Amino acid sequence: MKARRNSVKNSSAVENNNFKIDEQGRVDSSILFKQQIASEKTPSPSLKHGTFSLYWLTDFFFTHGLVLIGLAYASQKLMWLQCFAELFVIMTSFIMTGSVFVVIMCGLYGTKQQTNPPQTPEIWQEALDSIKAMYTFAALAAWPLYMYKDGQPMGLTFSLAEAQPWAPESVALYCLQLVGATLIVDLYSYIKHKSMHSQYLFQFHAMHHTYRDPTAFASFAVHPVESFLTFVPVLGMCFPQHKVWAHAYGLWTFGWALINLYLHCGHTIPIVEMFLQPLLLNSSGFHNSHHQKVSIIFF
Ligand SMILES: [Zn+2]
Ligand SMILES: [Zn+2]
């Protein structure tokens, strides 16, 4: 999330079945995005072209495959399915209402950063792609929730004393611990995003960059491979050694999601920037530039 600016690569034109990058580093959305829009009415591009690519195979595995694994390995299958459904509904509702909230705030207090804001069909596609990411999130997060409900030993706890066994019970000390954890998560996000821009992984990240002027609805509009890499740390809570205080974790997760919604809103809201900049966090202007030109990397 930190603003690591002006790392500009010399890019040359790149093209494959899913995306194209021109000499200036702009992702050409005419291939993948038009396929997505067209797929609402016609068979998916993989079926249409008779190909069975890694792109579509991983798309299936990191969505439905994860749910099938959950149903295969959970001893109480109905309980696991309930946990999955609860998390999917909660997170989808939050992301969608949060996006509407951010769009309203931008209209009231924001300064527009975009010259070519998206049209309604593209915004619908953004929302659908973000909802799909919540499907992958729910298939992963269902595991710790299932273990908690099933009474199995795991990391999530509502007791501060239990979450902080190495020191006297203190909210301030836990907040300090949370700052350290945030830095580790930030480093992970940075490495993940940088890796997604590598030669082999960019085909999965290109989908996010097809939204050159995104709205908040595109905040989680990524390929399921990227969703998996983003949300897989949640499985850490399955281990009893990784104690997490539920109250702080809930607040932290919703705060992080809200920042991500803001980064994609295409507007600058001065009061939000006032908080983000002293913390060296990315701004919506930086992230919009990154969407437009993949060779400009702010992360
Ligand atoms: Zn983005
Ligand atoms: Zn990127």
Fill in the keyword field for this structure:
299 residues, mainly alpha, three-stranded antiparallel beta sheet, two-stranded antiparallel ribbon, 12 helices, 9 strands, 58% helix, 6% strand, disordered N terminus, binds zinc ion
Bound molecules: zinc ion
Q: What is the ordering of alpha helices and beta strands?
A: EEEEHHHHEHEHHHHEHEHHE
Beta strand %: 5-15%
Shape: globular
> What number of structural domains do the residues give?
1
How much helical structure, as a percent, in the residues?
55-70%
Mean pLDDT: 82
Largest sheet, spatial ordering of strands: 2-3-4
Largest sheet: 3 strands, antiparallel
Instruction: Round the Cα radius of gyration to an integer and report it.
Output: 20 Å
CA distance, first residue to last residue: 6 Å
Low-confidence stretches: 1-12, 32-51
Q: If helices are DSSP runs of H or I spanning 4 or more residues, what is the number of helices? A: 12
Count of extended strands: 9
Secondary structure class reads mainly alpha
Kindly describe this structure.
With 299 residues, the chain is mostly helical. The chain has one domain (7-39, 53-297). Helix content is 58%, strand content 6%. It contains twelve helices and nine strands. The strands form four sheets. The chain has a three-stranded antiparallel sheet, with no helix packed on it. A two-stranded antiparallel ribbon has the order 1-9. A hairpin with a 5-residue loop joins strand 3 and strand 4. The longest helix is centred in the N-terminal third of the chain and has 33 residues, at 77-109. It starts with 6 loop residues before the first strand and ends with a strand. Bound molecules: zinc ion (2 copies). The site of one zinc ion (ZN) has 4 residues, from helix 12. The site of one zinc ion has 4 residues, from helix 12.
